[in-house]
């Protein structure tokens, strides 16, 4: 039988989130029941709750940066036991049969992966995310949180961490590579930490120098303000890899001018409106522009182990559930350093 659990949900597009109850499915043979301890607030939660990325499903319980403890396991579960520390990221199922799933890239499932929230399971039932006390997931779509990471700083790694780790790993950030991170926010600050730990030379490109001290503390070698026109002249032809983390439209041609010959600019932020650029910005230098979307389960586990090995999680501000709407406004205003994390204990009682 289903179980009623407490959650925070957006009842309609752009409506304030409010306390409610939702139904979680019974624990099946290969399922685990997770008592959620912390859930990160991702900017994509806001985009979807405000229906800025197209038609969405309501009521919506956001949250795909989930960290908690296993409290029940199905009879066929082999990967986890009661008491294990686990995380759930942006998807909770995939077809498991297509070439992308078989390659460990379930996030690019050709049938369409099942989103942790604002999605539908393959049986047609809606999915609800981590702004809730419990979640039931298939054991194959959870990851183990290493003992070296506390659950609160680990939660944002399930989206922000893997969103940056995946392209940095794919495009071989490391010693001898010059990497620029555009934007020092929830995504960007993880990019700085991860690229630095990989051994790359890291530069932050931010609108102003307001966060310079933070950027250098987190591992950046250099920090430049993009509002200063001289920045683009000074850094022309500098970078092997640029990771653009911002969820707003930027002048792409100006940023492409910063790439070396055969350099790549990768987009991981999703602005509300389409972007445009001049193809000659790529042609003159055999440059590339690409996108990247989180990582598969195997790579997400690799990322968590990497962060634990290097001794860091996300930079967080922990809030109670009754401050979610306030936190949304602060995220939009870039008033967070660098990820809000909801203490789910505040939902109980």
From TrEMBL:
Domain Enoyl reductase (ER) positions: 15-342
Q: Which reaction does it catalyse?
A: a primary alcohol + NADP(+) = an aldehyde + NADPH + H(+)
One Pfam annotation reads: ADH_N
Q: Which SMART domains does UniProt cross-reference here?
A: PKS_ER
Q: Which cofactor does it need?
A: Zn(2+)
Q: PANTHER family of this UniProt entry?
A: ALDEHYDE REDUCTASE
Q: What is this protein called?
A: alcohol dehydrogenase (NADP(+))
**What is the species of this protein?**
Streptomyces bingchenggensis (strain BCW-1)
């Amino acid at each position: 039988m289903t179980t009623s659990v407490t959650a925070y949900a957006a009842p309609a597009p752009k409506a304030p989130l409010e306390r409610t109850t939702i139904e979680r499915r019974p624990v099946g043979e290969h399922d685990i029941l997770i008592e959620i301890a912390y859930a990160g607030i991702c900017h994509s939660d806001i985009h979807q709750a405000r229906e800025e990325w197209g038609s969405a499903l309501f009521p919506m319980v956001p949250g795909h940066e989930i960290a908690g403890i296993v409290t029940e396991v199905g009879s066929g579960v082999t990967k986890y036991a009661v008491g294990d520390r686990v995380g759930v990221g942006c998807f909770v199922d995939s077809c498991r049969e297509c070439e992308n799933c078989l390659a460990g890239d379930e996030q690019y499932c050709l049938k369409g992966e099942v989103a942790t929230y604002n999605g539908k399971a393959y049986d047609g039932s809606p999915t609800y995310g981590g702004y809730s006390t419990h979640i039931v997931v298939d054991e194959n779509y959870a990851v183990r949180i290493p003992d070296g990471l506390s659950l609160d700083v680990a939660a944002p790694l399930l989206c922000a961490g893997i969103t940056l780790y995946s392209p940095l790993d794919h495009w071989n950030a490391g010693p001898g590579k010059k990497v620029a991170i555009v934007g020092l926010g929830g995504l960007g600050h993880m990019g700085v930490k991860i690229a630095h730990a990989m051994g790359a030379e890291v530069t932050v490109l931010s609108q102003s120098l307001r966060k310079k001290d933070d950027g250098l503390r987190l591992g950046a070698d250099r920090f430049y303000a993009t509002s200063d026109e001289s920045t683009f002249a000074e850094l022309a032809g500098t970078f092997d890899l640029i990771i653009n983390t911002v969820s707003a439209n930027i002048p792409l041609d100006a940023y492409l001018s910063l790439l070396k010959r055969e350099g790549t600019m990768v987009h991981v932020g999703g602005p509300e409106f389409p972007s445009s650029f001049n193809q000659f910005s790529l042609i003159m230098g055999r440059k590339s522009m690409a996108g990247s979307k989180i990582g598969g389960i195997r790579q997400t586990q690799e990322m968590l182990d990497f962060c634990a090995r290097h001794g860091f999680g996300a930079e967080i501000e922990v809030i109670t559930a009754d401050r979610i709407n306030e936190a949304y406004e602060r995220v939009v205003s870039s008033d967070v350093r660098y990820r809000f994390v909801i203490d789910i204990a505040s939902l109980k009682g």
